[in-house]
């Protein structure tokens, strides 16, 4: 019996180390998966990340065409000029 005890103890330690190694690998794998999922969710929901190409902020084309047509019909070809500055009278 004394010869069997060290072998049994050695195999128990080896099995415990093997279980600890598997547990550590599982924790690392879970951390990597959670980090990747968090990064993906952050990219999908953050305001700084656009999901579609950026469009210039502009009035709708139909509105622009109506304004051009009305401006041309009224004889307005250029924007109105500013009123003349203050003028002094001759004394």
Helix content: 55-70%
Terminal CA distance reads 132 Å
Report the β-strand fraction as a percent range: under 5%
Radius of gyration: 39 Å
Q: In DSSP terms, counting alpha (H) and pi (I) runs of 4 or more, how many helices?
A: 2
- The ordered string of helix (H) and strand (E) elements is HH
Mean pLDDT: 79
The residue ranges in which pLDDT falls below 50 over 5 or more consecutive positions are none
Overall spatial form: rod-shaped
Outline the biggest β-sheet. none
- Given helix and strand content, the structural type is mainly alpha
Key terms:
rod-shaped, 91 residues, single chain, mainly alpha, 60% helix, 2 helices
Structural features, described:
- There is one protein chain.
- With 91 residues, the chain is mostly helical.
- The chain has a domain at 1-49.
- It has helices spanning 4-45, 61-73.
- It is rod-shaped.
In short:
The chain is mostly helical. It contains 2 helices and no strands.
Set down the secondary structure blueprint.
Blueprint: H1 4-45, H2 61-73
